[in-house]
């Protein structure tokens, strides 16, 4: 199933096929929360990455030694996170997809950075920063 996504103004448009049995990953790290306006970054991945239909206003910001974040330079929508050198293999902001995308939460990451003022009620797996980085 091919899913189309876009930024708020439509200047960045893309499509892809969601990775089977993966769903939505929820990142609670401080960078994702600042970038996303206070809440976690909820992302999906596409098999083989995304194909861009329009990306003239897509801007990449190197946010750490490990990755960069893509946003629309026209409307400011937070769109993607990717590891450095990953090309079109991006974590896609689930809010850029149609509401009927069919994906469910499959895991939470960097949960030790999650603030106490929000909580998710699901019972999906949760990983600390150390577990995400392969330390535990």
Give an account of the 3D structure.
The structure is a single chain. With 136 residues, the chain is mainly beta. The protein has one domain (3-132): Beta Complex (Metal Binding Protein, Guanine Nucleotide Exchange Factor, Chain A), CATH 2.170.150. The chain has helices at 30-35, 129-132; strands at residues 3-6, 13-16, 24-27, 41-44, 51-54, 58-62, 67-72, 78-83, 91-93, 105-109, 126-127. The strands form 2 sheets. It has an 8-stranded mixed β-sheet. It has a 3-stranded antiparallel β-sheet with strand order 1-2-5, with no helix packed on it. The longest helix has 6 residues, at 30-35. It is globular, with a radius of gyration of 14 Å.
What descriptive keywords fit this protein?
single chain, 136 residues, mainly beta, Metal Binding Protein, Guanine Nucleotide Exchange Factor, Chain A, 8-stranded mixed sheet, 3-stranded antiparallel sheet, 2 helices, 11 strands
